Amino acid sequence: MAEKIKAPRGTFDVLPGDADARAAIVHAADSQFRRAGYGRIETPIFEDTALFSRTVGEATDIVSKEMFTFDDRGGRSVTLRPEGTAPICRAYVEHGMHKLAQPVKIWYLGQYFRYEAPQAGRFRQFNQIGAEAIGSDSPVVDAELIGLLHDLLVALEVPSLDLRLGSLGSPESRIDYREELQAYLRANESELSREVIERIETNPLRAFDSADPATKAVMQSAPTMLERLEGQDAAHFDEVRALLDQAGIGYTLDGTLVRGLDYYTRTIFEFHSDRLGAQSQLGGGGRYDGLVAELGGPETPAIGWAAGVERILLAAGGESQESAIDAFVAIADAGQSRRAAALVGELRNAGLAVEMDLAGRSMKGQLKQADRLGARAAIILDADGRAELRDMRSGEQTAIDPADAAGLIDPKEPR
Ligand code: HAM
Fold first, then answer.
1. pLDDT, tens digit, 9 for 90 and up, residues 9-62
2. 390: β partners
3. Distance between CA atoms of 316 and 329, rounded to whole angstroms?
4. Do residues 355 and 341 lie in contact, with contact meaning Cβ atoms separated by under 8 Å?
Protein backbone atom coordinates (compact mmCIF):
# COMPACT_ATOMS: atom_id res chain seq x y z
CA MET A 1 0.00 0.00 0.00
CA ALA A 2 1.17 3.50 -0.78
CA GLU A 3 2.24 5.67 2.16
CA LYS A 4 -0.55 7.93 3.44
CA ILE A 5 -0.12 11.68 3.28
CA LYS A 6 -1.57 13.66 6.15
CA ALA A 7 -2.73 17.28 6.30
CA PRO A 8 0.15 19.58 7.39
CA ARG A 9 0.67 20.09 11.13
CA GLY A 10 -1.59 22.76 12.56
CA THR A 11 -4.12 22.51 9.74
CA PHE A 12 -7.47 20.72 9.69
CA ASP A 13 -10.21 19.60 7.35
CA VAL A 14 -13.71 20.98 7.76
CA LEU A 15 -15.83 17.90 7.18
CA PRO A 16 -19.47 18.09 6.02
CA GLY A 17 -20.71 17.31 9.54
CA ASP A 18 -19.00 20.48 10.83
CA ALA A 19 -20.40 22.71 8.11
CA ASP A 20 -23.67 23.67 9.78
CA ALA A 21 -22.07 25.05 12.93
CA ARG A 22 -19.74 27.19 10.79
CA ALA A 23 -22.57 28.33 8.54
CA ALA A 24 -24.49 29.45 11.65
CA ILE A 25 -21.60 31.75 12.61
CA VAL A 26 -21.40 33.25 9.13
CA HIS A 27 -25.18 33.68 9.05
CA ALA A 28 -25.27 35.43 12.44
CA ALA A 29 -22.37 37.71 11.46
CA ASP A 30 -23.83 38.55 8.06
CA SER A 31 -27.19 39.49 9.52
CA GLN A 32 -25.65 41.62 12.25
CA PHE A 33 -23.24 43.42 9.93
CA ARG A 34 -26.00 44.17 7.44
CA ARG A 35 -28.09 45.84 10.15
CA ALA A 36 -25.08 47.90 11.22
CA GLY A 37 -24.19 48.97 7.67
CA TYR A 38 -20.99 46.96 7.17
CA GLY A 39 -20.26 45.66 3.63
CA ARG A 40 -18.23 42.52 3.02
CA ILE A 41 -14.73 42.67 1.55
CA GLU A 42 -12.43 39.95 0.21
CA THR A 43 -8.71 40.50 -0.26
CA PRO A 44 -6.04 38.11 -1.60
CA ILE A 45 -4.71 35.22 0.49
CA PHE A 46 -1.14 36.40 -0.14
CA GLU A 47 0.29 39.90 -0.17
CA ASP A 48 3.58 41.69 -0.62
CA THR A 49 5.65 40.78 2.48
CA ALA A 50 6.42 44.46 3.21
CA LEU A 51 2.70 45.07 3.88
CA PHE A 52 2.95 43.07 7.10
CA SER A 53 6.51 43.82 8.18
CA ARG A 54 5.84 47.56 7.91
CA THR A 55 2.52 47.58 9.80
CA VAL A 56 2.33 44.61 12.16
CA GLY A 57 5.92 45.36 13.17
CA GLU A 58 9.33 43.70 12.65
CA ALA A 59 9.72 43.07 16.39
CA THR A 60 6.40 41.25 16.82
CA ASP A 61 6.16 37.45 17.08
CA ILE A 62 3.96 37.43 13.99
CA VAL A 63 6.51 39.08 11.72
CA SER A 64 9.71 37.79 13.33
CA LYS A 65 8.79 34.11 13.52
CA GLU A 66 5.28 33.21 12.38
CA MET A 67 4.86 34.27 8.77
CA PHE A 68 4.69 31.89 5.83
CA THR A 69 6.94 33.91 3.53
CA PHE A 70 8.41 32.79 0.23
CA ASP A 71 9.70 34.16 -3.06
CA ASP A 72 7.38 33.65 -6.00
CA ARG A 73 8.79 32.49 -9.32
CA GLY A 74 9.44 36.10 -10.27
CA GLY A 75 11.61 36.62 -7.17
CA ARG A 76 9.10 38.80 -5.30
CA SER A 77 8.74 38.14 -1.56
CA VAL A 78 5.13 37.29 -0.76
CA THR A 79 3.47 36.23 2.52
CA LEU A 80 0.35 34.23 3.28
CA ARG A 81 -1.68 36.77 5.20
CA PRO A 82 -1.28 36.39 9.00
CA GLU A 83 -4.03 38.95 9.68
CA GLY A 84 -6.62 41.04 7.85
CA THR A 85 -6.26 44.66 8.95
CA ALA A 86 -3.17 45.65 6.95
CA PRO A 87 -4.59 44.13 3.71
CA ILE A 88 -7.84 46.03 4.19
CA CYS A 89 -6.01 49.31 4.76
CA ARG A 90 -3.95 48.53 1.65
CA ALA A 91 -7.21 48.07 -0.29
CA TYR A 92 -8.65 51.27 1.26
CA VAL A 93 -5.68 53.26 -0.06
CA GLU A 94 -5.42 51.40 -3.39
CA HIS A 95 -9.10 51.99 -4.22
CA GLY A 96 -9.21 55.58 -3.01
CA MET A 97 -11.87 54.74 -0.43
CA HIS A 98 -11.06 57.94 1.47
CA LYS A 99 -13.21 59.65 -1.18
CA LEU A 100 -16.28 57.69 -0.06
CA ALA A 101 -18.51 58.76 2.82
CA GLN A 102 -16.55 58.13 6.03
CA PRO A 103 -16.23 55.93 7.91
CA VAL A 104 -16.01 53.06 5.45
CA LYS A 105 -17.43 50.08 7.33
CA ILE A 106 -16.24 46.66 6.21
CA TRP A 107 -16.42 43.06 7.43
CA TYR A 108 -14.61 39.93 6.32
CA LEU A 109 -14.31 36.22 6.78
CA GLY A 110 -11.39 34.18 5.58
CA GLN A 111 -8.34 32.06 6.18
CA TYR A 112 -5.20 33.32 7.89
CA PHE A 113 -1.80 31.70 8.40
CA ARG A 114 0.63 31.80 11.31
CA TYR A 115 3.47 29.41 11.97
CA GLU A 116 2.64 28.93 15.64
CA ALA A 117 3.09 25.84 17.83
CA PRO A 118 -0.20 23.99 17.29
CA GLN A 119 -2.37 23.25 20.32
CA ALA A 120 -6.09 23.31 21.18
CA GLY A 121 -7.52 26.44 19.57
CA ARG A 122 -4.20 27.37 17.92
CA PHE A 123 -3.61 26.41 14.32
CA ARG A 124 -1.31 27.32 11.45
CA GLN A 125 -4.26 27.92 9.16
CA PHE A 126 -7.36 29.31 10.83
CA ASN A 127 -10.42 31.41 10.05
CA GLN A 128 -11.16 34.90 11.25
CA ILE A 129 -14.30 36.97 11.13
CA GLY A 130 -13.45 40.62 11.40
CA ALA A 131 -14.75 44.15 11.05
CA GLU A 132 -13.04 47.47 10.38
CA ALA A 133 -14.44 51.02 10.45
CA ILE A 134 -12.00 53.31 8.65
CA GLY A 135 -12.24 57.10 8.66
CA SER A 136 -13.67 58.16 12.01
CA ASP A 137 -12.08 58.94 15.36
CA SER A 138 -15.40 59.09 17.18
CA PRO A 139 -15.57 57.01 20.37
CA VAL A 140 -19.06 56.04 19.19
CA VAL A 141 -17.38 53.85 16.55
CA ASP A 142 -15.20 52.18 19.22
CA ALA A 143 -18.29 51.34 21.25
CA GLU A 144 -20.26 50.25 18.17
CA LEU A 145 -17.56 47.80 17.12
CA ILE A 146 -17.03 46.38 20.60
CA GLY A 147 -20.83 46.06 20.84
CA LEU A 148 -20.96 44.18 17.52
CA LEU A 149 -18.45 41.57 18.66
CA HIS A 150 -20.17 41.32 22.03
CA ASP A 151 -23.58 40.80 20.42
CA LEU A 152 -22.22 38.28 17.94
CA LEU A 153 -20.65 36.18 20.70
CA VAL A 154 -23.84 36.40 22.77
CA ALA A 155 -25.99 35.43 19.74
CA LEU A 156 -23.73 32.42 19.19
CA GLU A 157 -24.19 31.47 22.86
CA VAL A 158 -20.50 31.61 23.76
CA PRO A 159 -20.43 31.12 27.54
CA SER A 160 -18.53 33.04 30.24
CA LEU A 161 -17.50 36.05 28.19
CA ASP A 162 -14.95 38.42 29.64
CA LEU A 163 -14.24 41.74 27.92
CA ARG A 164 -10.88 43.33 28.73
CA LEU A 165 -10.48 46.96 27.87
CA GLY A 166 -7.44 49.20 27.75
CA SER A 167 -5.90 52.14 25.94
CA LEU A 168 -2.43 52.67 24.51
CA GLY A 169 -2.87 56.41 24.03
CA SER A 170 -1.56 58.17 20.96
CA PRO A 171 1.98 57.53 19.65
CA GLU A 172 3.13 60.99 20.86
CA SER A 173 1.85 60.44 24.38
CA ARG A 174 3.39 56.97 24.39
CA ILE A 175 6.96 58.28 23.92
CA ASP A 176 7.36 59.36 27.55
CA TYR A 177 5.58 56.28 28.85
CA ARG A 178 7.79 53.99 26.76
CA GLU A 179 10.89 55.57 28.29
CA GLU A 180 9.43 55.18 31.77
CA LEU A 181 8.68 51.50 31.11
CA GLN A 182 12.14 50.88 29.61
CA ALA A 183 13.75 52.42 32.71
CA TYR A 184 11.59 50.21 34.94
CA LEU A 185 12.54 47.09 32.94
CA ARG A 186 16.24 47.95 33.05
CA ALA A 187 16.05 48.50 36.80
CA ASN A 188 14.56 44.99 37.16
CA GLU A 189 16.63 43.32 34.45
CA SER A 190 18.02 40.58 36.74
CA GLU A 191 14.48 39.21 37.18
CA LEU A 192 13.42 39.28 33.53
CA SER A 193 13.46 36.52 30.91
CA ARG A 194 16.05 36.74 28.14
CA GLU A 195 13.40 37.33 25.49
CA VAL A 196 12.00 40.31 27.39
CA ILE A 197 15.48 41.78 27.97
CA GLU A 198 16.22 41.46 24.25
CA ARG A 199 13.10 43.44 23.44
CA ILE A 200 13.55 46.29 25.93
CA GLU A 201 14.73 48.55 23.10
CA THR A 202 12.46 47.38 20.28
CA ASN A 203 9.21 46.31 21.94
CA PRO A 204 9.14 46.92 25.71
CA LEU A 205 5.34 46.64 25.95
CA ARG A 206 5.49 42.95 25.07
CA ALA A 207 6.93 42.34 28.55
CA PHE A 208 3.31 42.43 29.76
CA ASP A 209 2.58 39.31 27.69
CA SER A 210 5.45 37.21 29.01
CA ALA A 211 4.58 33.77 30.38
CA ASP A 212 7.78 33.64 32.48
CA PRO A 213 6.80 33.64 36.22
CA ALA A 214 9.61 35.96 37.41
CA THR A 215 8.88 38.45 34.61
CA LYS A 216 5.18 38.29 35.42
CA ALA A 217 5.92 39.17 39.05
CA VAL A 218 7.98 42.20 37.94
CA MET A 219 5.23 43.32 35.55
CA GLN A 220 2.63 43.36 38.31
CA SER A 221 4.11 46.58 39.63
CA ALA A 222 5.12 48.03 36.25
CA PRO A 223 3.67 51.41 35.23
CA THR A 224 0.88 51.08 32.66
CA MET A 225 -0.11 53.39 29.81
CA LEU A 226 -3.65 53.34 31.16
CA GLU A 227 -2.43 55.12 34.31
CA ARG A 228 -0.64 57.72 32.19
CA LEU A 229 -3.51 58.58 29.82
CA GLU A 230 -4.19 62.28 29.65
CA GLY A 231 -5.83 65.04 27.61
CA GLN A 232 -7.66 63.95 24.45
CA ASP A 233 -6.64 60.32 24.90
CA ALA A 234 -8.18 60.19 28.37
CA ALA A 235 -11.34 61.99 27.19
CA HIS A 236 -11.72 59.54 24.29
CA PHE A 237 -11.33 56.55 26.59
CA ASP A 238 -13.80 57.94 29.13
CA GLU A 239 -16.37 58.39 26.38
CA VAL A 240 -15.88 54.80 25.12
CA ARG A 241 -16.44 53.56 28.67
CA ALA A 242 -19.56 55.72 29.12
CA LEU A 243 -20.99 54.37 25.84
CA LEU A 244 -20.30 50.76 26.86
CA ASP A 245 -21.92 51.40 30.25
CA GLN A 246 -24.94 52.88 28.48
CA ALA A 247 -25.16 49.76 26.25
CA GLY A 248 -24.98 47.53 29.33
CA ILE A 249 -21.76 45.86 28.17
CA GLY A 250 -19.63 44.90 31.15
CA TYR A 251 -15.83 44.99 30.97
CA THR A 252 -12.68 44.75 33.06
CA LEU A 253 -10.16 47.59 32.79
CA ASP A 254 -6.80 46.01 31.97
CA GLY A 255 -3.67 48.16 31.93
CA THR A 256 -1.55 45.11 31.04
CA LEU A 257 -3.40 44.52 27.77
CA VAL A 258 -0.95 45.19 24.92
CA ARG A 259 -1.97 43.05 21.87
CA GLY A 260 0.52 41.31 19.60
CA LEU A 261 0.57 43.80 16.73
CA ASP A 262 2.36 47.14 16.65
CA TYR A 263 -0.20 49.28 14.85
CA TYR A 264 -2.53 49.94 17.77
CA THR A 265 -3.31 53.36 19.22
CA ARG A 266 -5.80 54.38 21.91
CA THR A 267 -8.60 51.84 22.57
CA ILE A 268 -7.66 48.14 22.63
CA PHE A 269 -9.84 45.23 23.74
CA GLU A 270 -10.07 41.47 23.88
CA PHE A 271 -12.90 39.04 24.54
CA HIS A 272 -11.91 35.91 26.45
CA SER A 273 -13.78 32.83 27.61
CA ASP A 274 -12.51 30.48 30.30
CA ARG A 275 -14.01 27.60 28.29
CA LEU A 276 -11.03 27.84 25.98
CA GLY A 277 -8.15 26.94 28.31
CA ALA A 278 -4.73 28.40 27.52
CA GLN A 279 -5.74 30.08 24.26
CA SER A 280 -8.60 31.92 25.93
CA GLN A 281 -8.79 34.84 23.50
CA LEU A 282 -11.87 34.66 21.27
CA GLY A 283 -11.28 37.92 19.52
CA GLY A 284 -9.56 41.23 19.87
CA GLY A 285 -8.84 44.52 18.24
CA GLY A 286 -8.47 48.21 18.70
CA ARG A 287 -7.75 51.56 17.09
CA TYR A 288 -4.99 51.94 14.54
CA ASP A 289 -5.13 55.65 13.78
CA GLY A 290 -1.74 55.71 12.00
CA LEU A 291 -1.96 52.63 9.78
CA VAL A 292 -3.59 54.06 6.64
CA ALA A 293 -1.03 56.90 6.55
CA GLU A 294 1.79 54.37 7.04
CA LEU A 295 0.60 52.70 3.85
CA GLY A 296 0.76 55.92 1.87
CA GLY A 297 -2.84 57.06 2.37
CA PRO A 298 -4.05 60.25 4.05
CA GLU A 299 -4.10 60.57 7.86
CA THR A 300 -7.11 58.37 8.66
CA PRO A 301 -8.27 57.19 12.08
CA ALA A 302 -9.67 53.65 12.17
CA ILE A 303 -10.64 50.79 14.44
CA GLY A 304 -11.54 47.12 14.09
CA TRP A 305 -11.41 43.61 15.49
CA ALA A 306 -11.07 40.01 14.44
CA ALA A 307 -12.34 36.84 16.11
CA GLY A 308 -11.23 33.26 15.58
CA VAL A 309 -13.95 31.09 14.07
CA GLU A 310 -12.43 27.87 15.46
CA ARG A 311 -12.20 29.40 18.94
CA ILE A 312 -15.84 30.48 18.80
CA LEU A 313 -16.79 26.92 17.78
CA LEU A 314 -14.71 25.46 20.61
CA ALA A 315 -16.14 27.81 23.23
CA ALA A 316 -19.74 27.47 22.04
CA GLY A 317 -19.30 23.67 21.94
CA GLY A 318 -20.71 23.53 18.40
CA GLU A 319 -21.69 19.88 17.98
CA SER A 320 -21.20 18.34 14.58
CA GLN A 321 -24.44 17.16 13.15
CA GLU A 322 -25.74 16.10 9.78
CA SER A 323 -28.84 17.95 8.69
CA ALA A 324 -31.95 15.80 8.33
CA ILE A 325 -33.52 15.14 4.92
CA ASP A 326 -37.21 15.17 3.95
CA ALA A 327 -37.44 11.86 2.13
CA PHE A 328 -35.50 8.80 1.00
CA VAL A 329 -36.39 6.94 -2.19
CA ALA A 330 -35.91 3.19 -1.70
CA ILE A 331 -36.03 0.62 -4.49
CA ALA A 332 -37.11 -3.03 -4.41
CA ASP A 333 -34.47 -4.00 -6.97
CA ALA A 334 -31.76 -2.44 -9.11
CA GLY A 335 -34.12 -2.32 -12.09
CA GLN A 336 -35.94 0.59 -10.40
CA SER A 337 -32.92 2.86 -10.06
CA ARG A 338 -33.63 4.90 -13.20
CA ARG A 339 -37.23 5.50 -12.02
CA ALA A 340 -35.89 6.44 -8.60
CA ALA A 341 -33.35 8.89 -10.06
CA ALA A 342 -36.13 10.63 -12.00
CA LEU A 343 -38.33 10.84 -8.89
CA VAL A 344 -35.46 12.19 -6.77
CA GLY A 345 -34.86 14.92 -9.38
CA GLU A 346 -38.56 15.84 -9.42
CA LEU A 347 -38.80 16.02 -5.63
CA ARG A 348 -35.62 18.10 -5.32
CA ASN A 349 -36.99 20.52 -7.93
CA ALA A 350 -40.11 20.76 -5.77
CA GLY A 351 -37.86 22.05 -2.96
CA LEU A 352 -37.45 18.89 -0.90
CA ALA A 353 -34.21 17.43 0.48
CA VAL A 354 -34.19 13.92 -0.95
CA GLU A 355 -31.71 11.05 -1.23
CA MET A 356 -31.76 7.58 -2.76
CA ASP A 357 -29.68 4.45 -2.37
CA LEU A 358 -26.33 4.63 -4.13
CA ALA A 359 -24.69 1.61 -2.52
CA GLY A 360 -26.78 -1.41 -3.63
CA ARG A 361 -28.31 -1.91 -0.17
CA SER A 362 -31.07 -4.40 0.62
CA MET A 363 -34.53 -2.96 1.42
CA LYS A 364 -33.77 -3.32 5.14
CA GLY A 365 -30.43 -1.59 4.62
CA GLN A 366 -32.06 1.23 2.65
CA LEU A 367 -34.61 1.90 5.40
CA LYS A 368 -31.82 1.92 7.96
CA GLN A 369 -29.92 4.42 5.83
CA ALA A 370 -33.10 6.56 5.51
CA ASP A 371 -33.30 6.59 9.29
CA ARG A 372 -29.62 7.48 9.64
CA LEU A 373 -30.15 10.46 7.34
CA GLY A 374 -33.07 11.63 9.47
CA ALA A 375 -35.60 11.16 6.66
CA ARG A 376 -39.19 11.69 7.75
CA ALA A 377 -40.57 9.66 4.86
CA ALA A 378 -39.44 6.94 2.51
CA ILE A 379 -40.92 6.32 -0.92
CA ILE A 380 -40.58 2.66 -1.81
CA LEU A 381 -40.65 1.83 -5.51
CA ASP A 382 -41.82 -1.75 -6.15
CA ALA A 383 -40.64 -3.96 -8.98
CA ASP A 384 -44.13 -3.94 -10.51
CA GLY A 385 -44.21 -0.14 -10.91
CA ARG A 386 -46.21 0.61 -7.77
CA ALA A 387 -45.09 2.95 -4.98
CA GLU A 388 -45.68 3.21 -1.24
CA LEU A 389 -45.10 6.07 1.15
CA ARG A 390 -43.64 5.03 4.50
CA ASP A 391 -43.91 7.22 7.56
CA MET A 392 -40.47 6.73 9.14
CA ARG A 393 -41.78 7.56 12.62
CA SER A 394 -44.68 5.09 12.77
CA GLY A 395 -43.55 2.63 10.10
CA GLU A 396 -47.02 2.93 8.53
CA GLN A 397 -47.08 2.42 4.74
CA THR A 398 -49.72 3.55 2.22
CA ALA A 399 -49.94 3.00 -1.52
CA ILE A 400 -49.43 6.23 -3.51
CA ASP A 401 -49.14 7.44 -7.07
CA PRO A 402 -45.47 8.58 -7.32
CA ALA A 403 -46.68 11.63 -9.27
CA ASP A 404 -48.38 12.85 -6.05
CA ALA A 405 -45.33 12.28 -3.83
CA ALA A 406 -44.16 15.90 -3.68
CA GLY A 407 -47.54 17.05 -2.33
CA LEU A 408 -47.57 14.35 0.36
CA ILE A 409 -44.31 15.37 2.04
CA ASP A 410 -44.10 18.60 4.03
CA PRO A 411 -40.69 20.20 3.63
CA LYS A 412 -38.57 20.94 6.71
CA GLU A 413 -41.13 19.79 9.24
CA PRO A 414 -39.23 18.83 12.38
CA ARG A 415 -39.08 15.11 12.78
P1 HAM B 1 -5.28 38.87 16.68
O2 HAM B 1 -5.57 39.07 18.13
O3 HAM B 1 -3.90 38.55 16.30
O4 HAM B 1 -5.78 40.18 15.95
O5 HAM B 1 -6.22 37.72 16.10
C6 HAM B 1 -7.60 37.81 16.26
C7 HAM B 1 -8.18 36.47 16.63
O8 HAM B 1 -7.80 35.45 15.70
C9 HAM B 1 -7.68 35.92 17.97
O10 HAM B 1 -8.43 36.47 19.02
C11 HAM B 1 -7.94 34.43 17.84
O12 HAM B 1 -9.30 34.12 18.16
C13 HAM B 1 -7.73 34.21 16.36
N14 HAM B 1 -6.41 33.61 16.14
C15 HAM B 1 -5.22 34.23 16.08
N16 HAM B 1 -4.22 33.35 15.87
C17 HAM B 1 -4.80 32.13 15.80
C18 HAM B 1 -4.30 30.80 15.59
N19 HAM B 1 -3.01 30.56 15.40
N20 HAM B 1 -5.21 29.77 15.58
C21 HAM B 1 -6.52 30.01 15.77
N22 HAM B 1 -7.04 31.24 15.95
C23 HAM B 1 -6.19 32.29 15.98
C24 HAM B 1 -5.70 40.41 14.61
O25 HAM B 1 -5.48 39.55 13.79
C26 HAM B 1 -6.06 41.83 14.23
N27 HAM B 1 -5.99 41.95 12.76
C28 HAM B 1 -7.44 42.20 14.74
C29 HAM B 1 -7.84 43.59 14.37
C30 HAM B 1 -8.69 43.95 13.40
N31 HAM B 1 -7.40 44.71 14.92
C32 HAM B 1 -7.95 45.75 14.32
N33 HAM B 1 -8.74 45.30 13.39
1. 999 999 998 898 999 999 999 999 999 999 999 999 999 999 999 999 998 899
2. 378, 397
3. 36
4. no
β strands within 114-198, DSSP E: 125-134, 161-167
What is the layout of strands, in order, in the sheet containing 397-400?
Answer: 354-356, 327-331, 377-381, 387-391, 397-400
- pLDDT at position 414: 45
Per-residue pLDDT, averaged over 302-310, amounts to 98
Residue with the smallest CA separation from ligand 1 atom 10 is 283
Cβ atoms of residues 36 and 148 within 8 Å: yes
Contact 149/307 with Cβ under 8 angstroms?
Answer: yes
In 181-331, where do the E strands start and end? 252-253, 265-273, 281-287, 302-308, 327-331
Centre of ligand 1 from the C-alpha of residue 405, in Å: 50
310 pocket-lining for ligand 1 (C-beta < 6 Å): yes
- Ligand 1 centroid – CA 21 distance (Å): 20
- pTM, entire model: 0.90
- Indicate the residue type of 231: G
pLDDT (tens digit per residue) in 310-342: 999 999 985 555 678 999 999 999 999 999 999
